[in-house]
Design brief:
The chain contains seven helices and eight strands. The protein is of the alpha/beta class. It has an eight-stranded mixed beta sheet, sandwiched between helices. The chain is extended, with a radius of gyration of 27 Å. The N and C termini lie far apart (about 105 Å).
Length: about 290
């Protein structure tokens, strides 16, 4: 081989090696960019406790998608902590008090509230969430459980004691109706960070079931905050910051009760009236009584 041919072959090999190096360098840069983006959008990195709980059932109820506009992941509220919270919250306006859960997830908070307080103390419980498939699954679950409870109640009635008189049976029936969930529960799909966008109805009482005057006009977050006396949130601090102006107005101007699970709302600090420390925390905010 002459020198010219040898040099040509060397140049060709050098170009191939250089091209491979450039490709590898480009791949490394892409990987670094992907890692940086992943770290930037990983909302869990500053809140590792969200990953501490392991769910035994892998269903849509425990999924999450940041890219679709969600402001917080779904995490069920601890039942014991809710019981403590509800024991300290005063639903004291007969026939008027109602609760709205912004980012309600599986509506566990609403259901537990309705089971805790009879209709004479809590007339309405409303949940709003952006995850429509989660809300539909929740609706199906609640309706199924209600149907099973009704069947069980009918069996118990048929197998009731013979010495129960009519007055006792009527009293038990009235107590059951007072604790009923379906006539007081509403679920809507929508963005909790927008005040005036219409909410899509997922579940609400039929006309014959309603225990309160539920407006048939289009509902919005603004309207719900005007109508409900108590507001519950279980959101990440970043989401609470977005909602802080809305919640502050609800407490300061409209004298609503705001309950936050897990994280405080610094903008409402001067209105804090209750709190619970420990692994599971909650904070209650209310305008001071005159």
């Amino acid at each position: 081989m002459d020198k010219k041919g040898f040099h040509c072959e060397q140049d060709r090999d050098s170009r191939v090696i250089m091209k491979q190096g450039q490709q590898e360098e480009g791949q490394e840069q892409e990987q670094e960019q992907e890692q940086e983006q992943e770290q930037e959008y990983d909302r869990y990195k500053n809140n590792p406790q969200l990953l501490a709980e392991t769910f035994t059932t892998t269903t849509r109820l425990f999924s999450f998608d940041w890219a679709s506009g969600f402001v917080s992941p779904f995490r069920p509220s601890p039942e014991d902590t809710l019981s403590t919270l509800f024991s300290q919250v005063n639903f004291s306006s007969p026939g008027q008090d109602s609760l709205v859960d912004l980012g309600c997830g599986d509506a566990k908070v609403l259901v537990q509230a309705l089971e805790t307080f009879p209709s004479s103390r809590l007339v309405r419980a409303v949940g709003v969430d952006l995850d429509q498939s989660l809300l539909n699954a929740t609706k199906d679950k609640i309706l199924q459980e209600a149907e099973e409870e009704e069947e069980e109640a009918m069996k118990n009635c048929d197998n009731g004691r013979g010495d129960d008189n009519d007055n006792e049976k009527q009293k038990k029936k009235e107590e059951k109706v007072g604790q009923a969930i379906l006539p007081r529960l509403e679920l809507y799909c929508g963005d909790i960070t927008t005040m005036d966008d219409p909410l899509e109805c997922i579940m609400r009482p039929s006309s014959g079931q309603e225990t309160n005057d539920v407006s048939r006009t289009t509902l919005t977050i603004r309207k719900l905050l005007q109508e409900c006396s108590h507001v519950f949130v279980y959101l990440l601090p970043s989401a609470l910051t977005k909602l802080a102006p809305i919640l502050l107005e609800a407490v300061k101007r409209d004298h609503k009760v705001v309950m936050s699970m897990e994280w405080p709302i610094p903008e409402l600090a001067q209105y804090q009236v209750q709190s619970m420390a420990g692994d599971e925390q909650f904070y209650v905010y209310h305008f001071p009584s005159s």
